[in-house]
Specification:
CATH class of one domain: Alpha Beta
Largest sheet: 5 strands, mixed
CATH superfamily of one domain: DNA methylase specificity domains
Helix content: 25-40%
Strand content: 15-25%
CATH architecture of one domain: Alpha-Beta Complex
Low-confidence stretches: 453-460
Distance between the termini: 9 Å
CATH topology of one domain: Adenine-n6-DNA-methyltransferase TaqI, Chain A, domain 2
Shape: elongated
Number of helices: 11
Radius of gyration: 28 Å
Number of strands: 31
């Protein structure tokens, strides 16, 4: 469905906004809302009032603030409670970030929640109710033009922040109040429908990923021949395996484990003639992603010993508990790409086992169980596995020819599943782009949605 444009337009006077509906006003945020930068920190002090605190993460990960969100218990001074207690229709934005393009993430407070105050690194935008609707202000904050404004307004080097004046002076488009509410109602309905479609695709991806893991787990522990005699592996968590298979410590399969090198690299994609170092994200659920790298500075001499080669079996030695020990066999790689020090390159005795089979085993549920059980770290946000751990893991070892047959079967089956996952991911990306474009078009007056019922995706 496409939407009409307004009958008449005028120059907004703001270069990056361009033409806007003729009857809309263009003003500054400070003229139609109060801006309050919170000073409520995470410390809980006995001489302060007990409160619930809406912190950065609650804003960053929730488009709406409701009583179902989990808040943190904290404390605040009496004047802070008076100044920073959140109200229905407040818009809260993140005012600090590690990158300028990830700043001013917005959420809308949709109900009055007793004793809830706004935490630091956040700013409250409270609309003047006779001029500005809170929902319309939220969608303005979410729109691509205004987010671009905040990106260029942010200040900093290693961390970025929005100055108060930058927020207060942000250009605002102001339709009549009734029209603001109509636009907000339209976007509420349309974005909710798009979000529901995205959620279904995300659920499908989860189901497909579980099916993929279950398929791999079954085949690398039971084989392809359902009639093959089975025997107890002697390992409680592994159970029965085909009687002609062996289960052995991986030290009998692995001939070498090599750790990479991480010189100071530049956070950018390398040019074709430049050397680069892979990032942890280059190894992802059985797939090697050579585009996930950082360029080596021209003044740093590369170490050719660590160049990644086709056929390498790679395993991440550090990451979050869910991702540590992720593994892949390299099928394609660009030239001049080096192994980083958080990734191991594992050599296998090819007379005993086959690298792709070992990789599939480590991707299976029982394989992952060993990895997670051995992962160590002082923080659950980053854990590690050692070379000693890797050499102690148990590996089922079918005859090599059977390993080849299992790998061929899994390559075909997982490729089909991965294709379905990729289609779902593409749908999600397209849906999110539609959502972003629709919001920007509606709140900047590029389409006229007054009186329009929620319908199919707009062509904007």
């Amino acid at each position: 469905m496409s939407y009409p444009r307004y009958p008449a337009y005028k120059d907004s006077g703001v270069e990056w906004l361009g033409q806007v509906p003729a009857h809309w006003e263009v003003t500054r945020l400070k003229n139609i809302a109060s801006i309050r930068v919170s000073t409520v920190d995470k410390h809980v002090l006995d001489d302060e009032l007990p409160v619930s605190v809406c912190h950065y993460v609650q804003v960053y990960y929730n488009r709406r603030i409701t009583s179902t969100v989990k808040f943190v218990k904290g404390s605040a001074k009496r004047d802070e409670v008076a100044e920073f207690t959140l109200r229905r229709n407040d818009v809260v934005i993140t005012k600090d970030s590690e990158t300028p393009d990830d700043i001013a993430v917005a959420t809308l407070v949709v109900e009055d929640i007793p004793n809830l105050v706004c935490g630091y690194h956040l700013a409250i935008l409270r609309p003047h109710p006779e001029e500005l609707d809170g929902r319309f202000l939220y969608y303005l904050q979410e729109s691509r033009p205004l987010r671009a404004y905040y990106t260029v307004t942010a200040r900093g080097v290693t961390r970025y922040g929005l100055p108060y004046d930058g927020i207060a002076s942000s250009p605002m488009l102001l339709p009549p109040l009734a029209e603001q509410r109509a636009i907000a109602a339209f976007l509420d309905a349309e974005t909710a429908r798009i979000d529901a479609l995205v959620a279904k695709q995300q659920a499908l991806i989860t189901t497909l990923q579980e099916k993929r893991r279950a398929l791999i787990s079954h085949v690398v522990t039971k084989g392809l021949d359902a009639s093959a005699p089975m025997q107890d592996s002697g390992v409680l968590w592994l159970g029965a395996v085909p009687a002609h298979w062996e289960v052995m410590a991986s030290r009998r399969v692995i001939t070498d484990i090599e750790q990479g090198w991480s010189p100071q690299a530049e956070d950018r994609i390398a040019e074709a003639e430049e050397w680069a170092v892979i990032k942890l994200s280059a190894v992802s659920k059985g797939t090697f992603r050579p585009q996930e790298h950082k360029a080596l500075p021209p003044n740093v001499e590369p170490d050719h010993r660590y160049e990644v080669r086709v056929g390498d079996l790679l395993l991440t030695r550090a990451n979050t508990p869910e991702l540590v020990g992720d593994v892949c066999v390299v099928k394609a790689v660009r030239d001049k790409l080096m192994l980083c020090d958080l990734v191991y390159r594992i050599a296998v005795d090819e007379t005993v086992s086959y690298k792709p089979f070992v990789a599939y085993w480590l991707l299976s549920q029982p394989g992952r169980q060993q990895i997670i059980g051995d992962a160590r770290g002082s923080s659950q946000s980053m854990v590690k596995v050692s070379q000693g751990h890797i050499r102690s893991w148990l590996v089922p070892v079918p005859p090599r020819r059977e390993q080849l047959e299992i790998v061929d079967f899994l390559e075909q089956e997982t490729t089909q599943i991965d294709t379905l996952i990729a289609k779902a991911q593409a749908f999600i990306a397209l849906s999110r782009e539609h959502r972003t474009a629709l919001i920007a078009a509606a709140v900047t007056g590029q389409i006229d949605v007054r009186g329009r019922a929620a319908g199919a995706f707009a062509s904007v």
